[in-house]
Amino acid sequence: MKSGIRSRTLTAGVITALAASLLAASGPALAEEASVHPATQQYRPFIHFTPEKNWMNDPNGMVYYQGKYHLFFQHNPFGTTWGNMSWGHATSTDLLQWEEQPLAIAQTVNAESVAIEDIFSGSIVVDETNSSGFGTAETPPLVAVYTSAYTGAHPTHAGKQAQSLAYSTDEGQSWTKYEGNPVLDRNSANFRDPKVFRYDGPAGSYWVMTTVEATDHRVVLYKSDNLKDWTHLSDFGPANSTAGIWECPDLFPIAVDGDPNNVKWVMVVNLNPGAVAGGSGGQYFVGDFDGTTFTSDTTEPVDSIPDGTTFAGFNDGTYNGWTVNNEPGNWKDGPWAATPASGSLPGQLPVTGYSGAGLINGFNDGDWPVGSLQSPTFTVGSQDYINFLVGGGKHPRVEGGQLGNTPPAGSLLFNGFEYPQGSLTDQGWTITGDFEAARNPSTSGGEYAIDTGRINTFEAGPNGDNNTGTLTSPEFTIDKSHLSFLIGAGRRTDGTLQAELVIDGQVVESATGKNAGDLNWASWDVNEHQGKQATLRIVDNATGGWGHLTLDHVVLGDEPAQPRSSETSVNLVVDGQVVRTSTGNNSETLDWTNWNVSEFEGREASITVVDNNRGGWGHILADEFMFSDTPATSRLENYDWLDWGKDYYAAVSFSNIPDNKRIMLGWMSNWDYANDIPTSTWRSSMALPREVSLTETADGPRLVQKVVDQIDILREDDAAYSTGPQEIAEGIEALPVTGEVVQLDAVFSPGDAESFGLSVLGDGTEATKIGYDAGTNRLFVDRTNSGNEDFHPAFSSIDDAPVPLKDGRVAMRIYVDRASVEVFANEGLTTITDQVFPKAGANQIGLFSQGGSATLESLTVTPLTPAMWHGGVPPKGEDKATTAPGKGKLSIDHGKDKGPHDGNYAVNLNLKDGENGSTFNLYENGELVHTQKLTWNTPQPQNATVEITDRAPGKYVYTGELTNSKGTTETTKQTVVITKARK
Questions:
Q1: N-to-C CA span, the chain
Q2: pLDDT tens digits, residue range 169-207?
């Protein structure tokens, strides 16, 4: 992916301005504009891998070979949404600058060009001994082990998944599928994602494959001597989170804190949905592997019911006085039936996580029926919390929404498309393109359409989703303040699929669908256009999946339409108002949630369980409502997660990495909304590659993650901005530094603030917040006001993780890359990765504090040179060093304070002999608190001074590093003990 020419002196800030100007000049990028330069695309990352065009998901077959890192990935060569699964390919010498290669392993089609085999996820090994026979001893092959996902058109394996091989003898440039495929077949529809490694241990030497039976929540292990013939070893699971299907496993050894005599094994299991932040994510287990069986040390036991008083448990075969409202006429009395369910219902995946013999389960007759359940009225007592179990669909309640489908009052335009006779053209409409008069209006498609007529561009011409054209209404006069309508089906954000309000030849309003079959109400405020003539135009220039739009019942009225709340929810109702609400997580596993109800003590309340959704996951599960003095916590909080954000999935490790390093790479997206992110010619990026290790903690060995060291070649230290210590007053403060491709290193003290932190990718009104909640000791990323959040209802989120203060402080390292943030805290034990989609040009960086003031102890903002789409990364300026720096000496200057007592002093660096350093890093109790650029001038001595202020009583250990082009050398250590604050 080498393209374009980059000035050797171009900083990240200049690149931001250049990209913004190019984007403004080119206008919005359309999906078919393959010629658009990636650097000009608004959300294109510059230090993360993205394919030049089309869809990408899971990383596959990652291997280091002959000096190159090879990244293969799930790829749709023909479109920007999931489909036509094949393996794409890219190579790099530094894990950051990637060059895309030709398609590696393509989807298999038959003689009629019908797909019969998709190439799902897998791995690649270097077969050094040529055990497979695919190469020679002199030219060992690369062997890909992947899942053959056979389509319904396959003559012998239709609908099944099995493991297959392909091999390369030209360093991965071309691949041959093994004629004996599949090599491992369990006659299963969900057996996938093989990760193969070479085991050498007490049990012998052989290949080991980890795969999953996805819906059974089991990792299945096999062994082989030749990669072709496999013998079952053992199974692992179910364990910890089983709220979604298990996918993309990995198994590898790591020495704890580098001790070769203390080696543990890590089992990685990705799952979707059911991750800690919702949707897809990755969990891991630490334990032992003896060559046959993996034994986990970190599997959590099944929890017990929290302390409290249960007031609704549904275990006696009745609803205990709850009022049941099933959909009238449903043949199974759906969704609730007359009595509680005892577990799973016909057609449902296994339901787990409930308590006792019964539960509320809205899956009677599947997802289709709608209805509600209401508890008897009760008085909220002195206990502060209502705890309960919830599961099923993730469809939150829409505030201000209706459960019905009632139109707003007003004038119905176009007769609601219920024309007594004739077509749209007979009624004054103009149609173009593929649309035919005889097909319009349509009488089918679009759940919740009113009566029989509606616009449906799928039915409007002969080509279904591939119809293109426009339908334009006759003119009408705007004489009310709101134009409301039902709209549904496909979503496009590039103007190719939308309803438009046109006045004086200009589009003044537009709306698109949500990639869903049901129609819902939308409204435009048209008050400023009073008295003008307008037309409604339906534009469909979209093709492929969801390439159509549905629209019905256009009303001009004084009030906007009330949107329908297609919720699956549990609601607390006080005085007729919903005051608390919860929903499921698209999972058949119930989990604990809680409501703080202390403010309602002594008031009458009830609980209403609502199923108002007919689509996928259109049901709700609930159980074990109880009053308690303490909040129940989600079971997910007790498990070990690779990442606590929304966008880190399918993470697995590279094979054959030198020096026994373990480097992992994850897909930076979430299946909740992956197909809908607002990019144009491409979809999805990979996270930054991370080196992982194990460190001993109070809970046992746990993974520590950091971005690979190669990231340092992108650091523009000469342009870095540093500040602190400084007080952060309550409110928001803009910093005198901007950037959209930067590394931020920050240390905070809470003071009396409730929350505090940084804002990035801001434009003065919106920004992404990265902060810390002092009351809950949780790090968070808040993307609820980050730019474009409404392209999918599951996107807007606040994602958080428990992070304890260390010595009263929290330190974080953040990588920002135009449309993402990756946060590392707790010395790498905790990470949060989230995509964001800011407005064009949003590059402001700021500080914030709420509920009091906090202290910014230190902050360094370092621009990062783009690794992609701007030509090669220029080499760092030469400092002419011939060896690593000499050993600098730290000293402490207390001034006149001989105690010390006042918490104010200076840390001095002095280097008398040896090579100079180019950069000085100072660490306080292991946390980076200062970075300073030094002038290289060997053989002259070097000095630096760092002022430390307002330290509380305690012990502070200072260490440092001097770095130049030849290496890094640690300084001496100094300790400061502050006995008491000076009065």
A1: 63
A2: 999 999 999 999 999 999 999 999 999 999 999 999 999
pLDDT digits (tens, 9 = 90+) for 833-882: 999 999 999 999 999 999 999 999 999 999 999 999 998 888 776 788 88
Q: What residues are labeled active site? A: 58
Alpha-carbon span 596 to 598, nearest angstrom: 6
Residue 345 CB coordination number (10 Å):
19
Cβ–Cβ under 8 Å, residues 593 and 571: no
Tokens of 889: 């000496």
DSSP state of 30: P
Block residue for tokens 């903690």 = 697
Cis peptide bond upstream of 335, omega within 30: yes
Instruction: Give the chain's count of helices (H) and strands (E).
Output: 1, 66
Check residue 27 and give its pLDDT: 31
Of 637, 673, 955, nearest to 790 by C-alpha is 673
Give the chain's length. Answer: 983
Q: Alpha-carbon distance 884 to 22, whole Å? A: 42
DSSP, residue by residue, 222-268: EEESSSSS-EEEEEE---S--SSEEEEEEEEEEEBTT-TTSEEEEEE
How confident is the model over 571-600, as a mean pLDDT?
95
Nearest to 472 by CA among 556, 534, 403: 534
Kindly tell me the sign of the dihedral angle through the C-alpha atoms of 40, 46, 49, 55: negative
- What SS3 string covers 565-609? CCCEEEEEEECCEEEEEEECCCEEEEEEEEEECHHHCCCEEEEEE
Is the backbone of residue 353 left (phi > 0), alpha (psi -120 to 50) or beta?
A: left
Give 341's DSSP letter. B
Bridge partners of residue 110, in order along the sequence? none
Distance CA 64, CA 655 (A): 6
For 118, residues 6+ apart whose C-beta sits below 8 A from its C-beta are 84, 85, 86, 107, 148, 149, 150, 151
What sign for the dihedral angle of Cα 712, 713, 718, 720? negative
Give one DSSP letter per residue of 768-801, joined into a string: EEEEEETTTTEEEEE-TTSS--TTSTTT--EEEE
The three-state secondary structure class of 812 is strand
In angstroms, the CA 692 to CA 254 distance is 9
3-state secondary structure 272-299: ECCCCCCCCEEEEEEEEECCCCEEECCC
Q: Is the pTM value of this prediction over 0.70?
A: yes
CA distance linking residue 41 with residue 543, whole number of Å: 21
- What's the half-sphere exposure (Cβ side, CA atoms, 13 Å) at 951? 23
3-state secondary structure of 539: strand
**What are 725-761's pLDDT values in tens digits?**
999 999 999 999 999 999 999 999 999 999 999 999 9
Dist CA 895 CA 880 (whole Å): 37
pLDDT above 70: percentage of residues in the chain: 96
Query: What integer is the mean pLDDT of 583-601?
Result: 94
> Residue 424 region, left (φ>0) first, then alpha (ψ -120 to 50), else beta?
alpha
Judged on CB neighbours under 10 Å (0-12, 13-18, 19+), 305 is: middle
Strand partners, 246: 271
Helix (H), strand (E), coil (C) string for 286-347? EEEECCCCEEECCCCCCCCCCCCEEEECCCCCCCCCCEEECCCCCCCCCCCCCCCECCCCCC
**Rg (the chain; Cα; Å):** 30
Looking at residue 982, its pLDDT comes to: 57
DSSP state, residue 303? P
Which amino acid is it at 21?
Answer: S
Contacts with 362 (C-beta within 8 Å, 6 or more apart), sequence order: 334, 335, 336, 371, 392, 568, 609, 611, 619, 620, 621
Nearest-angstrom CA–CA distance, 199 and 191: 22
- Which residues pair with residue 691 across a beta bridge? 663, 706
Q: Among candidates 547, 533, 476, which has minimal Cα distance to 504? A: 533
Provide the sign of the torsion angle of the four alpha carbons 30, 36, 39, 45, taken in this order: positive
